[in-house]
Amino acid sequence: MTPEIENAFAAIRAEFGAESVRRVEQMLEPSGSERHPLQKSAKWIMPGLSPTPWHDPYAYAELAPVVHELETSHQAIKEELNVAWSARREAFSDYEHYLTRQDNWQALYLFREGGLTEESAATVPIAYQVLKDVAVDTRKICPLLECHFSTLLPGAVIEPHCDLWNFSINLHLAVDIPDGCSITVAGETRSWEEGKCLLFDYSFEHEARNTGTRPRTCLLIDLWHPETTVPERRALVALITEIRRLMGED
Predict the structure, then answer these.
(1) Which residues contact residue 206 at a Cβ distance below 8 angstroms, ignoring those fewer than 6 apart?
(2) Higher pLDDT, 248 or 131
(3) Which among 68, 20, 61, 27 has a CA at the least distance from the CA of 47?
(4) Where are the beta strands (DSSP E) in the chain?
(5) DSSP string of 86-134?
(6) pTM for the model
(7) DSSP 38
(8) Residue 115: what pLDDT?
(9) Which region holds residue 32: left if phi is over 0, alpha if psi is between -120 and 50, else beta?
């Protein structure tokens, strides 16, 4: 670890206790932590988090208010998304996954690079405000990642892959779902139910497809895994921010 990371961890230990970042430290040990075979391509697996691919969106007291508000606001969010897709297509861009870029996978960002994407407030104001109220202001969103409308065009396929780590978790609000769309996580395939949320651990291998005839759109939010603690989250932000700085990403 660099001095910057060591100093950040020391400050967190001083505030929260000697063992408060132990699981983060274990994640960084050369031997790593045990992982499911379908997490083999993930960069980091923090020990002690439930190795469960699919989660019940309402199972966690921390996340249930986010899920409830998104589902309650679904119709209004869908209507403003449809207007944006028709009238402000320039607000969408090819999605740039850390592994690849796809022109048949379009994204409209609401949160990125550690903060709200202010220009989206004019394009999708309801979704923007809901996100700000229930996930950003409450610090449930993982600031290392993002929130965006994810639109798969007809015929698009997201190939099987693992995302970087297991300490955040991916929430999907099914905004506009045609027939012929599905997502597979750790070998289990499900379909989105429009107006409802799916929650899964994307450190497990996953893939998605749209075999329908019109675009499929979900609102994706990267939330902290509910089994992580406040000191762990602070340590993880310090760690990943410093790693990105050293890699020239910031």
Answers:
(1) 160, 161, 162, 163, 183, 184, 185, 186, 200
(2) 131
(3) 27
(4) 54-55, 93-96, 101-112, 115-116, 147-152, 157-161, 168-176, 181-185, 188-190, 197-200, 206-210, 216-224
(5) HH-GGG-EEEE-SS-EEEEEEEEEEEETTEE-TTHHHHSHHHHHHHIII
(6) 0.94
(7) G
(8) 97
(9) left
pLDDT digits (tens, 9 = 90+) for 79-129: 999 999 998 888 898 887 665 777 899 999 999 999 999 999 999 999 999
What one-character-per-residue DSSP string does 5-23 give? HHHHHHHHHHHH-TTTTHH
Backbone angles phi, psi at 135, to 5 degrees: -125, -40
* Phi, psi of 25, deg, nearest 5: -65, -40
pLDDT at 53 over 90: yes
CA-based end-to-end distance of the chain: 18
Neighbour-count burial of 139, counting CB atoms closer than 10 A to its CB (0-12 exposed, 13-18 middle, 19+ buried): exposed
CB atoms within 10 A of CB 177: 21
